[in-house]
């Protein structure tokens, strides 16, 4: 069994690390594997085998990898171990049977990689990790929570899809986790399903019930969609890192429409009574979500009554960003002004694509 040292299932560690952690953690584990091989009396060839065997899965996998893609790429990852083993064999001038080395190194890697694939779900559950696999599943429109949102609040569902597109692209532009930003966006308004007609995007075919309520009553209903959203997120077993988007997408900002309405009747109104019940964004992804959510709502309101163009979209973006900065909503988010500038450009391009002009077709003539 002299060839067994070439068949160490080291890629198991690499797959678990890349899929459940990140590249930095994989590099650390790669170094650890090589040091352990060295400490165990291994030669320089086996040290290289341990290090490269851990890091190679990162070549085939990325943050956008889902379970289906990993299943396809396991065979490619497994084929790299015989190549590494052959390189070490050649370097060491070993006299072991090369056929045995290649066959057993491949079989060992294949079995280990299939085991890693099978165990990822259990490891996620035990250690409460939210991998990119999980985020990809949450962004699937067949997820029970998204189906629930679509069935109970279709307008909110469509709004969430657009916000998800804006947030995903912007997060990708600044190197944030785009899958997390999209998942946050999809679920940020889940709480609106409890009372959908109280929100304007779901009021087609309905009269506005806020016309019969006082501004403070209306504000309390609007506030409740955050707490209701968290309750539903827990019911659907959505990870905390994702439902933080529910808590942080409004921050503790003012519900301005009803605050201004109340101020017309009551000069002594307190702004604090009209603030959302959430928390200020604590990550780049939730800060992007806050901006994308406000921007989508503002553009929808404005461009339903007037045509959009490049300048108008830019003005709306500047207004939303300035409002959030002035209200101190981004003070806890680890985001820079340079990144905010990149996000603005991303939103500009996305919204221009969304509100592009169409050619008005002539009416069909009687002859036709």
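Sequence proposed for the structure above (368 residues):
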């Amino acid at each position: 069994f002299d060839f067994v040292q070439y068949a160490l299932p080291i890629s198991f560690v690499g797959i678990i690390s890349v899929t459940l952690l990140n590249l930095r953690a994989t590099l650390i584990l790669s170094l650890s594997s090589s040091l352990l091989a060295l400490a165990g009396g291994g030669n320089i060839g086996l040290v290289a085998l341990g290090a490269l065997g851990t890091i190679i899965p990162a070549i085939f996998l990325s943050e956008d990898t889902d379970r289906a893609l990993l299943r396809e790429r396991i065979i490619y990852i497994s084929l790299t171990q015989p190549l590494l083993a052959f390189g070490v064999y050649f370097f060491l001038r070993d006299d072991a049977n090369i056929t045995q080395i290649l066959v057993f190194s491949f079989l060992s890697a294949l079995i280990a990689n299939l085991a890693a694939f099978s165990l990822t779900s259990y490891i996620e559950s035990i250690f409460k990790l939210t991998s990119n696999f999980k985020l990809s599943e949450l962004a699937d429109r067949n997820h029970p929570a998204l189906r629930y949102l679509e069935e109970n609040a279709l307008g909110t569902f469509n709004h969430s899809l657009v916000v998800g597109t804006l947030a995903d692209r912007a997060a990708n532009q600044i190197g944030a986790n785009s899958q997390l930003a999209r998942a946050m966006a999809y679920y940020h308004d889940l709480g609106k399903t409890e009372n959908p007609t109280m929100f304007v995007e779901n009021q087609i075919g309905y009269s506005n019930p806020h016309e019969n309520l006082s501004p403070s009553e209306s504000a309390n209903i609007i506030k409740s969609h955050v707490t209701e959203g968290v309750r539903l997120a827990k019911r659907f077993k959505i990870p905390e890192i994702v439902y933080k988007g529910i808590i942080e997408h409004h921050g503790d900002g003012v519900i301005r429409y009803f605050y201004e309405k109340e101020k017309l009747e009551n000069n002594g109104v307190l702004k604090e009574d009209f603030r959302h019940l959430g928390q200020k964004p604590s990550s780049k992804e939730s800060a992007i979500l806050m901006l994308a959510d406000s921007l989508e709502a503002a553009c929808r309101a404005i461009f339903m009554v007037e045509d959009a163009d490049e300048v108008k979209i830019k003005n709306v973006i500047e207004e939303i960003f300035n409002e959030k900065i002035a209200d101190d909503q981004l003070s806890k988010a680890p985001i820079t002004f340079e990144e905010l500038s990149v996000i603005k450009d991303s939103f500009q391009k996305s919204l221009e694509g969304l509100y592009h002009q169409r050619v008005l077709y002539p009416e069909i003539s009687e002859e036709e």
